[in-house]
Amino acid sequence: MNAHTQKTSFAGPAGAIEIAIDAPAGASRGVAVIAHPHPLFGGTLDNKVVQTLARAFTQSGWTAVRFNFRGVGGTEGAHDEGRGETEDMLAVVQQVAPCGALALAGFSFGAFVTSHVFERLHATRTIDKLVLVGAAASRFTVAAIPEAAHGDTLVIHGEQDDTVPLQSVLDWARPQALPVTVVPGGGHFFHGQLPLLKNLVLRHLR
Q1: Dihedral sign, Cα of residue 138, residue 164, residue 84, residue 89
Q2: If we measure between CA atoms, which residue out of 69, 101, 97, 104 comes closest to residue 201?
Q3: Domains of the chain by range and CATH?
Q4: Distance between CA atoms of 3 and 43, rounded to whole angstroms?
Q5: I need a labelling partner for 159 at 20 to 30 A (CA). Which of 35, 94, 134, 187 fits?
Q6: Distance of CA 141 to the CA centre of its chain
Q7: CA separation (Å) from 147 to 31, 122, 176?
């Protein structure tokens, strides 16, 4: 992502997990763990939306940690339809942020996984911020977000997303009365609108 990105790896549930760490300019407010889109469709920690999320977090004073799901890049193992990937993300959180301020974010398949990681963690520790972009609600069962966490949650979706229809995300959010920020004309990958996406996240993190 930049010249100062630190690449490393550690042992995860299915073998080595490759991670990339970007530190903020000053003292860190906490750690943000960010999940990438579907591994079988080219998703990696270098995805442009994932990098945009990382930049927003670092600009807001957070240490941003991206990682590759199992079977991608330098991460060992094989794709597990979200089950093993949830364990991967939990392992990353335990490794890089066992305590202290924590934020979770994900894009597409990564947002689906992030929702389940949030579901697993929120009862036992505070999660300061949650950002779900292009949540794959038409393809997977995205976990519900407890009402108490709605104020710390940002859900962003493109109006013209042809990978995950906006309607599927609204159908997921409606029973929870969870607000969804819709980017007019936006597609799944927010082509030409990544600066807007970053600014929406920056505003949420202030």
Answers
A1: negative
A2: 104
A3: 6-205 (3.40.50.1820)
A4: 22
A5: 35
A6: 16
A7: 23, 12, 7
